[in-house]
Design brief:
0% helix; mainly beta; 103 residues; four-stranded antiparallel beta sheet
Length: 103
């Protein structure tokens, strides 16, 4: 993931976890940054847990999807696509992650 400027993006929602943030832009783009102790900023369990100081686009789990809503837990991130699919990643203790559920 490379750093992305927020200057040309219209931010419609910001969600904050413990030491990390998620932004939803009007075009459905999702950006994250902050601590990534449990992969909560990148959405890729096989990826890196490196913390990020600048916003980066999440593409690996949602490539080609239109994201409608975002939310966070203390150490987890959640995205809802326009067709109602829930994407989640991060710390999954106490059954907080459901991984790609469709409503």
């Amino acid at each position: 993931m490379s750093a992305v400027s927020l200057i040309s993006r219209y931010v419609v929602k910001i969600a904050a976890g413990t030491y990390f943030n998620v932004i939803l832009a009007s075009d459905g783009t999702v950006l994250t940054w902050g601590r990534a102790d449990y992969y909560q900023t990148c959405g890729d369990r096989a990826g890196t847990s490196t913390s990020r100081s600048a916003p980066r686009m999440v593409t690996n789990v949602i490539y080609g999807k239109m994201i409608y809503d975002i939310a966070t837990g203390p150490s987890s991130s959640y995205l809802v696509s326009d067709n109602g699919t829930l994407y989640s990643w991060g710390k999954g203790d106490q059954y907080v992650l459901f991984h790609t559920l469709t409503t």
